[in-house]
UniProtKB/TrEMBL annotation:
Gene3D superfamilies: 2,3-Dihydroxybiphenyl 1,2-Dioxygenase, domain 1 (3.10.180.10)
Parts forming coiled coils: none
PROSITE patterns, A to Z: VOC (PS51819)
Organism domain of life: Bacteria
Protein name: Phage portal protein
InterPro entries to which the protein is assigned, alphabetical: Glyas_Bleomycin-R_OHBP_Dase (IPR029068), Glyas_Fos-R_dOase_dom (IPR004360), VOC_core (IPR037523)
Species per Swiss-Prot/TrEMBL record: Larkinella knui
Length: 118
């Protein structure tokens, strides 16, 4: 059984070339604190309550990288459980201090499961 801990972040897409406009809106208009650093895919990260909001430029198309990311406590067991049901897992760029993978639900929604590591 997957042991969900909390929602870690939500990634939403912004049109290509709109990163600075997004930074101004989320950082100035919504007054969110930007998380500094070089993030996967050139994403912008902001703190919002006790989670993060990730913004990433993405070309329009049928598939999206938008997703919720759930922190869990048993990533290896979750992999086994999903694979035992024939769910295909995919992997993305590495993030220091986290292990993670992605999968799609039957409706093609992308979902990330992650676990923090020491």
């Amino acid at each position: 059984m997957i042991q969900f801990k909390r929602l870690d972040h939500i990634l939403i897409s912004i049109p290509e070339g709109k990163k600075e406009e997004a930074r101004a809106f989320y950082g100035t208009v919504l007054d969110l604190d930007e998380v500094p650093g070089e993030h996967p895919g050139g994403a912008l990260w902001f703190s919002i309550a006790d989670i993060q909001l990730h913004l990433r430029e993405e070309a329009a198309g049928p598939y999206s990288k938008r997703h919720p990311a759930f922190e869990i406590t048993n990533l290896d067991e979750a992999k086994q459980q999903l694979e035992s049901h024939g769910i295909e897992l995919t992997y993305s760029s590495e993030i220091d201090g986290r292990q993670r993978f992605f999968f799609h639900d039957p409706f093609d929604n992308r979902i990330e499961l992650l676990q923090f590591v020491d």
